[in-house]
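Quiz preparation item.
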C-alpha cells in the first residue's frame, strides 16, 4: 500500500545512538514530533517489537538509521547481519505501507562489486556485492521495494563521525600512539560525515513537507546515492585527518595495496557513487569530503592532539 504521509507528522528514528541516528535526532527537529529510539527502546532484531512500536506510534515518517555494520564480522555472522539489514527493514517497510508512512532507509556502496572502470556508480548500475554485509544490505533494499510503500533508500559510503567506531576516530587514536601507519591506497570512495547524511535527509524531508502534495513521496520513491563530493583513498583520508588534527605531530603515513592488508570481507576497489540523481530530484549538493572532515574534527576538538 502506498499513499500520502498521515497528518500526525510523528517522525520515528531508529538507531538513535548510532553515528547517523544521533545526528538525525538533531537535524529533524522542527519538522515534526521526533521520537528517537535507541536499541534498548527498540531492538530491530525483535521483529514483533517493530510491529508493536509502529502500530502504537503510527508515525508519518520512519527513518531507519539502525543496521548491522560490522563488515568483517558479518562473514561469520551471516544470520545476524541479514536479520538487521534485511528482515528488520522488510517489516518496517510492510508496517509503513499499511500506515501510508514514508520509510527512509540507508544502504551502502558495498552493494556494488567495485569493478567499474569508467567513473562513479549510478543508481541504475548492476549490483553485485562481494561480501556478506553488502549482500544483506542489497537484500534489505529489495525487501523494502517489495513492500510497495513510499520509501527513500540512500546509499552512502565510508561513514564517519565524532561518535562511535569509524576510520577517522581510529586514525586519531592510532596517530597519537604510533610514529608510522600503513594505510590502503588502492581503494577509492567518498568519506562521508554522518552529519552530512542527516542534514541532507532533513532537507529532503523538508522539501516534501513544503510541497504539500499527497503523492509527492510516491512520485519520488526510490534509491538515491548520498555521499560527500569528491573522492579519496583510505590513505588520502588518513593523511587529511592527521594534517588537519595533528599538524607537525602527525605520524608518517605509508601507502599500501589492499592485498597487503587482508581482511575477512572483500572491499570494493571503486566505491565512487554519483550524487547527481539526488541533486536533480531534491536540489541538494553535497559538500566536498575535506570540508565536511574539517567540520567533524572541529566537533571532536582534536586540533592539538599530541602523540604519546
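Solution:
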Amino acid at each position: 500500500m502506498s499513499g500520502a504521509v498521515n497528518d500526525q507528522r510523528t517522525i520515528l528514528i531508529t538507531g538513535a545512538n548510532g553515528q547517523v541516528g544521533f545526528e538525525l535526532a538533531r537535524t529533524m527537529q522542527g519538522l515534526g514530533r521526533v521520537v528517537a529510539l535507541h536499541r534498548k527502546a527498540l531492538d530491530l532484531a525483535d521483529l514483533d517489537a517493530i510491529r508493536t512500536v509502529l502500530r502504537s506510534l503510527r508515525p508519518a515518517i520512519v527513518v531507519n538509521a539502525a543496521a548491522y555494520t560490522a563488515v568483517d564480522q558479518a562473514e561469520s555472522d551471516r544470520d545476524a547481519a541479514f536479520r538487521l539489514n534485511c528482515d528488520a527493514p522488510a517489516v518496517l517497510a510492510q508496517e509503513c505501507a499499511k500506515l501510508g508512512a514514508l520509510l527512509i532507509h540507508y544502504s551502502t556502496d558495498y552493494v556494488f562489486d567495485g569493478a567499474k572502470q569508467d567513473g562513479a556508480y549510478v543508481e541504475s548500475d548492476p549490483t553485485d556485492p562481494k561480501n556478506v554485509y553488502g549482500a544483506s544490505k542489497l537484500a534489505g533494499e529489495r525487501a523494502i521495494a517489495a513492500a510497495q510503500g513510499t520509501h527513500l533508500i540512500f546509499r552512502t559510503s565510508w561513514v564517519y563521525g565524532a561518535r562511535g567506531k569509524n576510520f577517522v576516530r581510529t586514525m586519531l587514536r592510532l596517530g597519537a600512539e604510533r610514529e608510522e601507519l600503513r594505510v590502503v591506497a588502492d581503494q577509492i570512495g567518498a568519506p562521508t560525515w554522518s552529519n552530512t547524511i542527516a542534514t541532507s535527509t532533513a532537507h529532503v524531508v523538508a522539501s516534501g513537507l513544503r510541497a504539500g502534495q499527497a503523492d509527492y513521496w510516491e512520485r519520488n520513491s526510490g534509491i538515491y546515492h548520498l555521499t560527500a563530493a569528491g573522492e579519496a583513498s583510505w590513505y588520502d583520508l588518513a593523511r587529511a585527518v592527521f594534517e588537519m588534527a595533528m599538524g607537525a605531530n602527525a605520524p608518517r603515513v605509508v601507502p599500501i595495496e589492499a592485498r597487503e592488508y587482508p581482511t575477512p570481507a572483500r572491499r570494493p576497489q571503486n566505491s565512487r557513487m554519483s550524487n547527481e540523481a539526488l541533486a536533480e530530484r531534491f536540489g541538494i549538493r553535497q559538500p566536498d569530503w575535506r570540508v565536511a572532515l574539517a567540520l567533524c574534527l572541529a566537533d571532536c576538538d582534536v586540533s592539538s592532539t599530541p602523540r604519546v
